[in-house]
Amino acid sequence: MRTIAPLTIEIETKSSKQVIDITGHVGAVLDGVPGGTCHLYLKHTTAALTVMTWEAGVPEDIMDILQSLTPKLAYRHDSAAHVAAHFLSALVGPSVHVPVQARQAGPG
After folding, report:
1. How many structural domains does the chain have?
2. Of 1, 19, 24, 56, most Cβ neighbours within 10 A?
3. Strand residue runs (E) in 19-102
4. How many other C-beta atoms are found inside a 10 Å radius of the C-beta of residue 73?
5. What is the pLDDT of residue 2?
6. Which residues of 3-19 are buried (b: 16+ CB within 10 A; e: fewer)?
7. In this structure, is residue 88 part of a structural domain?
8. Residue 28 lies in a domain
9. Does 97 fall in a domain?
């Protein structure tokens, strides 16, 4: 079994609430890998990873649903927006594990 050392993909965001398609970035890293699995992990506690379709409206609908799950409370840690980012990151999670088939990430 061939193992590829951990690699870093850097993404610059434009907003604190943003959905970013990283498929192309991951595909570039997987170029030449015939098959196996790929583990993606975020090193940040106010961001999350998930696998989704990019059909029209789906990313926005998911973000709206996630935002509706954060109650308006008097938080102790920091601002409500910052605490909400921590909560949503914990809810969705910081990692995904995807199959690699024919030199690309498998369908999600």
Report:
1. 1
2. 19
3. 35-41, 95-101
4. 9
5. 64
6. eeeeeeeeeeeeeeeee
7. yes
8. yes
9. yes
pTM above 0.70, yes or no: yes
Would you mind telling me the total number of residues written for the chain in this entry? 108
pLDDT for residue 35? 82
**Cα–Cα distance for residue pair 63/98, rounded to 1 Å:** 22
Q: What's the gap between Cα 5 and its chain centre?
A: 20
Over the stretch 28-63, which tens digit does the pLDDT of each residue have?
888 888 888 889 999 888 889 999 989 999 999 998
Domain with residue 88: its CATH number is: 2.60.120.460
Residue 87: pLDDT over 80: yes
- For residue 84 the two structure tokens come to 């909400």
Full residue range of the structural domain in which residue 54 is found: 23-105
In three-state secondary structure terms, 52 is: coil
Helix (H) or strand (E) holding 67: helix 58-68
